[in-house]
From TrEMBL:
Family statement: Belongs to the class-I aminoacyl-tRNA synthetase family. GluQ subfamily.
Role, per record: Catalyzes the tRNA-independent activation of glutamate in presence of ATP and the subsequent transfer of glutamate onto a tRNA(Asp). Glutamate is transferred on the 2-amino-5-(4,5-dihydroxy-2-cyclopenten-1-yl) moiety of the queuosine in the wobble position of the QUC anticodon.
Gene from which this protein is expressed: gluQ
UniProt binding sites for L-glutamate: 9-13, 45, 184, 202
Keyword entries, A-Z: Aminoacyl-tRNA synthetase, ATP-binding, Ligase, Metal-binding, Nucleotide-binding, Protein biosynthesis, Zinc
Enzyme class (EC, first level): ligase
InterPro entries tied to this protein: Glu-Q_tRNA(Asp)_Synthase (IPR022380), Glu/Gln-tRNA-synth (IPR000924), Glu/Gln-tRNA-synth_Ib_cat-dom (IPR020058), GluQ/Sye (IPR049940), Rossmann-like_a/b/a_fold (IPR014729)
GO molecular function annotations of the record: ATP binding; glutamate-tRNA ligase activity; zinc ion binding
GO biological process entries: glutamyl-tRNA aminoacylation; tRNA modification
Annotated positions binding ATP: 243
Protein name: Glutamyl-Q tRNA(Asp) synthetase
Organism expressing this protein natively: Pigmentiphaga litoralis
Position of sequence motif 'KMSKS' region: 240-244
Length: 295
């Protein structure tokens, strides 16, 4: 079977500048694209407007360029694509896959607590309270997709085989939020298809999102990209490096050091080069030897 030409992407949220953790995801997706002779696209995931920081998108672009990570083609900006997400949402609605939900977060937490006597870690599975229609006197706050029963399986190139019963573990999830914003899960699936992305390479913090994205790809009849989730960078306390845990912004003046550190994290070993372009070329060769069939 001939594969579609490789298209990869890096999809930062402009909630602040890139840090060493985001560099690992950027570098891994860049190297995988270049090692396959493919394209590497850039997408600004700026839908969560309360978290968007003015100027962060420009800063991210400057940082990528300073680290020699040059993307292909125009940048896709999610905030300009409301009509496209609306169209996908309407398609799901007409097919009967969407319903309005009047529950607050607290009500969902309380009902799960009542049912199980305990709260699961992290995300709370939606118990389906509004699935058969809104209770009297309630109005829709958010809009959820009905998750079909069954286990989703996929192969992750880094982590190995994965599976999740999304209906049981997550429940019907939100596509249009109570604050009127499109959920990440919908936008990412629509945009990966619109950009003809064949390969998603990103941080392992998003591994648990993939089964939900597969659910949406199947309901919308969209292709399912190959997946690779690379290990996230943690700080001394074992927390994922993020703006919230105080990660410092990448400094293009120290690009080679940052790349070397990211390369070690991605198990590329020592790549001895004294300038950025040469380092990236050699890193692409090492990546190809490990991850590209027949390279
Ligand atoms: N925008 C997401 C983030 O910055 C990444 C989305 C993705 O790669 O699918 O965490």
């Amino acid at each position: 079977m001939s594969r579609r030409p490789y298209i990869g992407r890096f999809a930062p949220s402009p909630s602040g500048p890139l840090h060493q953790g985001s560099l690992v995801a950027a570098l891994a997706s860049y190297l995988d694209a270049r090692a396959h002779g493919g394209q590497w696209l850039l997408r600004m995931e700026d839908l969560d407007t309360p978290r968007v920081v003015p100027g962060a998108a420009d800063r991210i672009c400057q940082q990528l360029q300073g680290f020699g990570l040059h993307w292909d083609g125009p940048i896709l900006v999610q905030s300009a694509r409301n009509a496209v997400y609306r169209e996908a949402f309407d398609r799901l609605t007409h097919a009967g896959h969407i319903y309005g939900c009047g529950c607050t977060r607290k009500e969902i937490a309380d009902s799960v607590l009542r049912r199980d006597g305990r709260l699961p870690d992290g995300e709370i599975p939606y118990p389906g309270t509004c699935a058969q229609g809104l209770p009297p006197g309630r109005h829709a706050r958010a809009w959820r997709v009905r998750v079909p029963p069954g286990v989703i399986h996929f192969e992750d190139r880094w982590v190995g085989p994965q599976q999740q019963d999304v209906a049981a573990d997550v429940g019907d999830f939100v596509l249009l939020r109570a604050d009127g914003l499109w959920a990440y899960q919908l936008a990412v699936v629509v945009d990966d298809a619109a950009q003809h992305v064949t390969d998603v390479v990103r941080g392992a913090d998003l591994l648990a999102s993939t089964p939900r994205q597969r659910v949406l790809q199947r309901l919308l009849g969209l292709p399912e990209p190959r997946m690779m989730h690379v290990p996230v960078v943690t700080n001394a306390d074992g927390q994922k490096l993020s703006k919230q845990t105080g990660a410092t912004a990448l400094d293009p003046a120290r690009a080679l050091d940052g790349l070397r550190e990211a390369g070690h994290h991605l198990e590329l070993g020592d790549i001895v080069r004294t300038e950025v372009a040469g380092w990236l070329t050699e890193a692409t060769r090492v990546w190809a030897a490990r991850w590209v069939d027949g390279a």
